[in-house]
Design goal:
By secondary structure, the chain is α+β, with helices and mostly antiparallel strands. It is built from nine helices and four strands; from the N terminus they run βαβααββαααααα. The structure holds S-(P-nitrobenzyl)glutathione. S-(P-nitrobenzyl)glutathione (GTB) binds near residues 57 and 59.
Length: about 210
């Protein structure tokens, strides 16, 4: 059975792979799992057929037989635990790689998304100019911590893992907003991720 994932029929990022289906496609490519992509319009995302797959009417979703998943983190974790290649076998190393997945999604991504939402939707508010520096500081705090921890290493904890895959996709959004200028270490980390053949195949599919 070939899994099917969903992605934007017309992505606002104009093909830059910044939406959250990219991390799922990249994970599937890393483990050489063939997959189908069903493109959905904004109207289709909110229609009953898609809402039955995703309670919030979003992408990505993942269908494999009678398994339906939403949340990109849960999907990538499922792929990583059911195929070799994205998580170490050794129990403690595996736990650390999964911790980096959670760090990407619950510690690094939220301030980046918050800032992005402010720039997109709050520009005309009279408190926008006062709020932006605070949002920038929150992003900076996370990027500084991550950059220090990564140091000169290629990946966050030993070999490339699902933790790096998730972190690189999160950082790409910050880079697209120009927030990585002070962080050559993180820009080089993203470039290493983007240079992986599986990443390039995922990009080509999108
Ligand atoms: N926590 C969920 C997950 O990780 O799967 C979040 C899913 C999510 O936010 N999906 C977005 C969506 O479906 C697409 S990725 N939005 C439509 C809606 O909520 O109605 C977010 C996104 C969109 C566009 C860009 N971009 O253009 O750069 C980047 C990221």
């Amino acid at each position: 059975m070939i899994p099917t994932i969903t992605a934007f029929a017309s992505s606002p990022d104009r093909g830059r792979g910044l939406a959250r289906d990219m991390r799922v496609r990249w994970a599937l490519e890393e483990v050489s799992q063939p997959y189908d992509v069903r493109l959905v319009s904004f109207a289709e995302m909110k229609a009953p057929a898609h809402m039955a797959l995703h309670p919030f009417g979003q992408i990505p979703t993942y269908e494999d037989g009678d398994l339906v998943l939403f949340e990109s983190g849960a999907i990538v974790l499922h792929i990583a635990t059911t195929h070799p290649g994205l998580l170490p076998d050794e129990v403690k190393a595996r736990a650390r790689a999964i911790a980096w997945m959670f760090a990407a999604l619950s510690t690094v991504e939220p301030p980046i998304v918050e800032r992005s939402a402010a720039v997109l939707m709050e520009r005309d508010e009279d408190w926008y100019e006062a709020r932006l520096p605070m949002l920038d500081a929150r992003v900076r705090q996370r990027l500084d911590g991550l950059s220090s921890r990564l140091g000169e290493a290629d990946w966050l904890d030993g070999d490339f893992s699902a933790g790096d895959l998730m972190m690189v996709t999160v950082l790409r959004r910050a880079e697209a907003m120009g927030l990585l200028e002070p962080h050559p270490t993180l820009r080089a980390y993203i470039a290493r991720g983007e240079a992986r053949p599986a990443y390039r195949r995922a990009e080509a599919v999108g």
